[in-house]
Amino acid sequence: MTTTSSTTSFAASVLDPIRAIVGERGIITDPGTMQPFMESWRDGWVGRSPAVVLPDSAQALAAVVRICAETRTPIVPQGGNTGLTGASQPHADGSEIVLSTNRLNRIREIDLDNDTMTVEAGCILANIQNAARDVGRLFPMSLAAEGSCQIGGNIATNAGGVQVVRYGNMRNLVAGLEVVLPDGRIWDGLRGLRKDNAGYDMKQIFIGSEGTLGIVTAAVLKLSPLPRATATALVAVSSPSDAVDLLTRAKGKVGDRIITFELIQRFCIDIARRHVPDVPDPLNDVYPWYVLVELADQDSGERLAGMLEGILEAAMEAGEVLDGVVAASKAQADSLWRIREGIPEGQKREGVSYKHDVSVPISKVALFLDRANAALEREFPGIRPFSFGHLGDGNIHYNPIQGEDGDPAEWKARLGAVNAIVHDIVVDLGGSISAEHGIGRLRIDELPRYKSPVELDMMVALKMAFDPHNIMNPGKILRLNGNAR
């Protein structure tokens, strides 16, 4: 992965007042100790920094930002460092400090009557889920990195996951925010309100901004009732079009009891089984496409399973479903989920893949897959389609893999051309080139191709209003005035 450098240099004298604020526990300058903060867990984003700073309060973080604002020192906010677009790694020139939220990890309040939880940005997502469950509530954000990702990063990237179809993404789950602005002021917007029509909804400005407008230090999260029961099934379908028909049928019967509706190409299961232990083959026969569907409700498990079985029986009679299995126990449900969870790891080991986190209207998912597969096969014979993802909200991870026995270097060189083909089709169908992963550095040079000049002007105006000196995560999402940063 290439990195861009800047002419900006780092003034080592900046570290002395920062150290005075955070103490020796709050700053790392040893290169070896800093290394985990410098590199991404996937896709090879690597940078350099003179220091990783770890404040233990919003006030200390704000004081550090004020010093950086006064000295024009660029900042890279970083949470759990589980992102996929290079947004949380510094550039290679060593001019930026990394500002980690690892020590901002307290749950400040749980308000059961209001169904909200106030947490600091460094809280691990799984810990928030468990804290909610301990008091009989659900925090529904769920994704593969939940054991290490932090809620501040989830908010900064507007994270999605497998339950968006019912609960929405992070935009739907945040009631209020506390944010340190690029000049070091703290905005206290920690209001746990469902209705607040007093002017602009400022929290939405920061959700999905990838740390380019400010640093989230705390959030009021919305909680939901903890479901009493779930019902899980994996079914086979002939095509994505039949899967969409099944989704429409299910929504008509059980509404928002659907919490997960995942589309899986057969090739994805084959690759997962090839490379990942304990991934089962769910059905006796092999089919081209599968759907993993899960319902949740306050009803009994028996009644919920009956609802799911009724939907699937009707779908089989209509020819939408070819075969399937309904989990009879939690262990069986976990086994079905193991298939879905093993797909990204299997793909990583199979060879060069072209990862596209795209969304289109649900009604156009099948058309997108047909058009993209045909276009890539024409241009790059032997490329292997590899598609899975969140059909319930139109977010498909379209990640074709290099041809078998091909030269990885040659296939890597085709990345730009593959991206252009796929993303042109996505946008032509009214979709987005980033459904849940963000822009970061990965898509920064593609964004001008797919955003109108008016929309880009609005984004730049917003950035300049909040961060006129471009110190907050520069070179992510937007390039300003044609500069690398």
TrEMBL record:
Q: Which InterPro entries match?
A: FAD-bd_oxidored_4_C, FAD-bd_PCMH, FAD-bd_PCMH-like_sf, FAD-bd_PCMH_sub1, FAD-bd_PCMH_sub2, FAD-linked_Oxase-like_C, FAD-oxidored/transferase_4, Oxid_FAD_bind_N
Cofactor section: FAD
MF terms (GO), sorted A to Z: catalytic activity; FAD binding
Q: Which GO terms describe its biological process?
A: respiratory electron transport chain
- Keywords, in A-Z order: FAD, Flavoprotein
Which Pfam families has this protein been placed in?
Answer: FAD-oxidase_C, FAD_binding_4
Say if the entry is tagged with keyword Flavoprotein: yes
Its domain of life reads Bacteria
Keyword Metal-binding carried by entry:
no
Q: Where is the FAD-binding PCMH-type domain?
A: 45-226
In the record, the note on similarity to other proteins reads:
Belongs to the FAD-binding oxidoreductase/transferase type 4 family.
PANTHER family xref list? BLL6224 PROTEIN (PTHR43716:SF2), D-2-HYDROXYGLUTARATE DEHYDROGENASE, MITOCHONDRIAL (PTHR43716)
Its name, as the record gives it, is FAD-binding oxidoreductase
Q: Which organism is it from?
A: Azospirillum doebereinerae
